[in-house]
Amino acid sequence: xxxxxxxxxxxxxxxxxxxxxxxxxxxxKFAAIPWVYAEIVRRIAEGERVRLLAGAFEEKAxxxxxxxxxxxxxxxxxxxxxxxxxxxxxxxxxxxxxxxKAIAHFRFNAWAKYPDWKRDGRIPExxxxxxxxxxxxxxxxxxxxxxxxxxxxxxxxxxxxxLLDSEVQVRNPGFSRADYEKLFRDGLGITRTIWLGKGIxxxxxxxxxxDLARFVNPRTIVLCEEKNPEDANHxxxxxxxxxxxGSGLEIVPLPMPQPVHFDGRRLPASYANFxxxxxxxxxxxxxxxxxxxxxxxxxELFPDRAVVGIHSRDLVWGLGTLHCLSxxxxx
Length: 331
Known about the structure:
This protein is α/β, with parallel strands linked by helices. It has one domain: L-arginine/glycine Amidinotransferase, Chain A. The protein is about 25% helix and about 25% strand. The protein is built from 9 helices and 18 strands. It has helices spanning about 35-45, 60-65, 85-90, 110-115, 125-130, 160-165, 175-190, 235-245, 290-300, and strands spanning about 10-20, 50-55, 75-80, 95, 100-105, 135-140, 150, 155-160, 190-195, 215, 220-225, 250-255, 260, 265, 275, 280-285, 305-310, 325-330. The chain is globular.
């Protein structure tokens, strides 16, 4: 029996996060980041355990969380060291195999772009040892959690720009569409892979799908929409909408915020980078008129959960927001 990757909305045992410590990810803005994290931890802990990869920074984490009024009864501080905090991509990808929890062991190489990844690359094996669960080899393939999204019933979303491009940030040289689909089938229980085209402007990962399209239930996808024809995102998002037309799935448009720039760079601000936890859906907000619209759309799609906005204009300077920094451990 192949492994199955559960959907994010299925009940969690815990959420894995890594405490922020690498100031170079937010040059000039790092001071604000631990306080944003404290709010994220507080919201997640209302409905599940938080396994916090604190490494050597446990005391700093405890001090910030204590001052923010975050209760510690649902927080587990793990002395697992990290290079950076993007746990969606470097953290343990949990699957179910033969009725048991296991970790699919994909390689991580910092998006085929950065040199600081050796500690992050060891997180899955250290997590498996901590939980005493099997670590399932995936043939040495590089795959980040943000590059895929699943409905828990055999469907997977990915982009050609991220996984199939042969010139920019190439994760697995020579790996074909058929190779990925076989890997997803054998390792994650996927029966159908839906390929979108390009990701959004400013995306440091070269096309992660979790910034543009997400499953919200087994038959519904929210897809980012840019109505301004002059915006760089307009043609790519239009093409992705065309690809999903006729898919047999319900497609719900999700607005894009106005472009967010800092220090001369466009940042990957997107409401699609939300995180579904047991007690809430946490949604990045950007002091934008579209914040309210995006929160309203997601509130209608998740009537059983509170939909909570998390201020992310500072956070996105690290080139990721809420989904990028979290990883769910299914019950």
